Amino acid sequence: MILSFLLLFITAVQHHGSSAESSHGNKFQHSSMKEQNGVQDSQHEKVLTVAGEGTVHSPNFPRTYPRNTVLVWRLVAANENARIQLTFDERFGLEDPEDGICKYDFVEIEEPSDGAILGRFCGSQAAPGTQVSKGSQIRIRFTSDEYFPAEPGFCIRYSLLPVKVPEPEIPVVVPPSLQSVDVLSEAVSGFSTVEEVMKYLEPDRWKLDMEDLYKPTWHVLGKSFIHSKKSRGGTDLNLLKEEVRLYSCTPRNFSVSLREELKRTDSIFWPTCLLVKRCGGNCGCCHRCYNCQCTPTKVAKKYHEVLLLRYSRAGRGLQKSLTDVALEHHEECSCVCKDDADG
Ligand SMILES: *[C@@H]1O[C@H](CO)[C@@H](O)[C@H](O)[C@H]1NC(C)=O
């Protein structure tokens, strides 16, 4: 009996003595001993599916837990949208912290997705407060070293927090019929078919409106209907819209002079001009903009093989060779408002 007390006293002195001398040495000693003792791999975790309530506790709770132990539990909520709540039993006691830091025996709560430590607890002053997972999982890690196991250890009751149903955010949408002419005009201009426009204006009865639109009531018919005598309405509005799109501000065929484009006044090229894609067409449908310009938004360099004629410096007449010239092609264009740039 006396002998075992003496032994405990000696180990106690070693424990605190070495940490006072050199914390680095102490750490190293700890880890090397752990390796020798073959403490469980800390990555080896027990996965628990949480559908209701349950508990996780240190071995032998509420009696003294064993030394040299690492235990990891990963709690996974059965419902992905649920959160897990951890409540510590009032009876709580692990080896005391040193300098306010839990270094030896402790229980840690971790966020599994990024390994962030939500809390590390030890000592025996007060049981830790309630913890709640960030996502649908949470990890509990218990570590004890080779000295001073305490009692009672810890016991954590886990439970599912009720699923939070995100309240659908009701966007503040002004119904089209209440919008100003400017706002409505801009919204409507974005659609490419009559159907889309009607759906936007009357989500509930747009089909009826479409039918009404094409009903040949003679007194509202335009001249185009009388002339074209189509069975269903006058003009194909969708086609008109598409035509405008095709011919306003798009990459189109342009001829460029190679001498001018390449600034090579010493050379003659054949062909003299090449066909390139450049942004062209107007931007008449720009909204609330006085100076709207058709501007390239995607440019590519393409190589073209041409005949190059050049007088040699040595005066040996005309050199003729094939050469590659790089020309810019505009692949995408869009109407950009330059009001600010001017102002
Ligand atoms: C541009 O030129 C190419 C090559 O000759 C031709 O295939 C294409 O149809 C032309 N595009 C337009 C919009 O005229």
UniProtKB/TrEMBL annotation:
Keywords, in A-Z order: Cleavage on pair of basic residues, Developmental protein, Disulfide bond, Glycoprotein, Growth factor, Mitogen, Secreted, Signal
GO terms of biological process kind: platelet-derived growth factor receptor signaling pathway; positive regulation of cell division; positive regulation of cell migration; positive regulation of cell population proliferation; positive regulation of ERK1 and ERK2 cascade; positive regulation of phosphatidylinositol 3-kinase/protein kinase B signal transduction
Cellular localisation: Secreted
Keyword Membrane recorded: no
Alphabetized InterPro entries for the sequence: CUB_dom, Cystine-knot_cytokine, PDGF/VEGF_dom, Sperma_CUB_dom_sf
Signal sequence extent: 1-20
GO cellular component terms attached to this protein's record: extracellular space; membrane
Top-level taxon in the UniProt lineage: Eukaryota
Domain CUB: 44-161
Gene3D superfamilies tied to this protein: Cystine-knot cytokines (2.10.90.10), Spermadhesin, CUB domain (2.60.120.290)
SUPFAM superfamilies in the record: Cystine-knot cytokines, Spermadhesin, CUB domain
Residue ranges, annotated region (Disordered): 20-39
Domain Platelet-derived growth factor (PDGF) family profile: 249-340
The keyword Metal-binding belongs to this UniProt entry's keyword annotation: no
Family of this protein: Belongs to the PDGF/VEGF growth factor family.
Name used for this protein in its record: Platelet-derived growth factor C
Organism ancestry: Eukaryota, Metazoa, Chordata, Craniata, Vertebrata
